[in-house]
Amino acid sequence: MDSIGAQVYAKVLQNSVQAIEEVNRLHSSGYSRENIYVISHDQAREGRIVDVADANEVGLKEEGLFGAIANMFRSRGDALRSKITSLGFSGAEANFYEKELDLGKVLVIAKKPSF
Q1: Where is the General stress protein 17M-like domain (predicted)?
Q2: CB 16 within 8 A of CB 49
Q3: Which of 61, 36, 45 minimizes the C-alpha distance to 105?
């Protein structure tokens, strides 16, 4: 999935610099901070990208209370797949993206705001 016109947009990027550039491109396309998410296997890296690029992390609002609590007891890979599905992707898509994250890549997701 790689189209700005889609309801949910996702792009796998090779590194933090590319992820920040992608978030900036999404901002200039009209997406707000609240609708842009950064996901990485490395939580510290994810946090740095979110801070620098003015993006969002998947949290309680997206996952729901039970999902967020369950993720505290899941492996990082299982938690990442749960976060990705909470943004509207299928289990198969979440598996694909999580395997890319295993390779050290960064996932940027943008959602159209729901009215």
Answers
A1: 11-104
A2: yes
A3: 45
- What would the two tokens of residue 96 be? 């694909």
pLDDT in tens, 7-63: 788 999 999 999 999 999 999 999 999 999 999 999 899 999 999 998 977 755 665
Cα 87–Cα 53–Cα 5 angle in degrees, nearest 5: 45
User: In Å, how far are 1, 8, 31, 101 from 43, measured between CA atoms?
Assistant: 24, 23, 23, 12
Range list of β-strands (E), the chain:
8-13, 36-39, 106-111
CB atoms near residue 72 (< 10 Å): 7
Give residue 104's region: left, alpha or beta (phi > 0; psi -120 to 50). Answer: left
